[in-house]
Automatic annotation (TrEMBL):
It comes from the Bacteria. GO terms for molecular function: hydrolase activity. It comes from Lederbergia graminis. Residues 51-243 form the SGNH hydrolase-type esterase domain. Transmembrane segments: none annotated. Keywords: Hydrolase, Signal. Residues 1-21 form the signal peptide. This is SGNH/GDSL hydrolase family protein. The keyword Signal applies. Gene3D superfamilies: SGNH hydrolase. Pfam families: Lipase_GDSL_2. The keyword Calcium does not apply.
């Protein structure tokens, strides 16, 4: 009887020990399973950016031939902890107006780039203003620019709509225009008013779209202390492009747009 009791007691201890070990082991597995995986934001992101527009996107006036503001902006973006690389595809063509940009948006290579982009940066408007100058150089009137603004406004809206149709989520940044005519037409006092009105039209249009905004640069080029223009007195020089890049990164960070892009 005593022997049977000892055998039974030993068996209970063995079974209890196995149960205890299994529960501890299972608990460890359970704890390992519930540990949160690092969020996607933990890993630096590779950004794909489309630069689309006129000679400012092409980088005319940049003596380093690195793409104007793009090389400076790339460096600034990649200095952010959350960004590993910022790759730009440059679709800048000198002389382009809103009419040209609308036509070029039918290009399959450009469409494909926009579809896979995190952001699209647009420079346009300066050549639209220049068209008014060229067509009416001997009889310039403020009313001519006001009239031209209406067509510009409609075409700009169509440009944004097309880009949005290719990519619903890409961040769209429209760089405003500046007054390059100070050296050419310093006697036309209405020129600054024209540039300001043109930028106001751009702001009104782009503000109607989600994930889209205007980057103002007009004030940068009113700085008379240091030359920001290339030798043609129209395009930015290296310093001018660097300041444009700094304004873009400031716009992205101060308005928390960069956070949206890297999410």
């Amino acid at each position: 009887m005593k022997r049977i009791f000892l055998l039974t007691f030993s068996l209970i201890l063995i079974l209890s020990g196995c149960s205890f070990s299994d529960s501890v082991f299972s608990g460890k597995l359970l704890n390992e399973q519930v540990k949160p995986f690092p969020p996607e934001s933990f890993f630096p992101k590779d950004l794909s950016i489309v630069a689309f527009g006129d000679s400012l996107t092409k980088g005319v006036g940049d003596t380093t031939n690195q793409g104007g503001y793009i090389s400076y902006l790339k460096t600034l973006l990649e200095s952010q902890e959350e960004i590993r690389t910022a790759e730009f595809q440059n679709f800048g063509v000198s002389g382009n107006t809103t009419k040209d940009l609308l036509n070029r948006l039918n290009n399959e290579e450009l469409q494909s780039a926009i579809q896979s982009s995190d952001a699209v940066i647009i420079t346009v408007g300066g050549n639209d203003v220049m068209e008014v100058f060229k067509s009416n150089i001997l009889n310039l009137k403020l009313s001519m620019f006001v009239s031209a603004q209406e067509g510009y406004s409609q075409r700009l809206r169509e440009i944004i709509e097309k880009i949005r149709s290719y990519n619903q989520n890409t961040q769209i940044l429209l760089v405003g225009i500046y007054n390059p005519f100070l050296g050419w037409f310093s006697d036309i006092h209405e020129m600054q008013e024209i540039v300001t009105r043109w930028n106001k039209t751009s702001l009104d249009i782009i503000s109607t779209f989600d994930h889209a905004s205007l980057v103002p640069i007009e004030d940068i080029f009113l700085n008379q202390e240091e030359s920001l223009f290339h030798t043609d007195y129209f395009h930015p020089n290296n310093l001018g492009y660097e300041l444009i890049a700094e304004r873009i990164i400031s716009h992205l960070t101060e308005n928390e747009i960069l956070d949206e892009i890297i999410e």
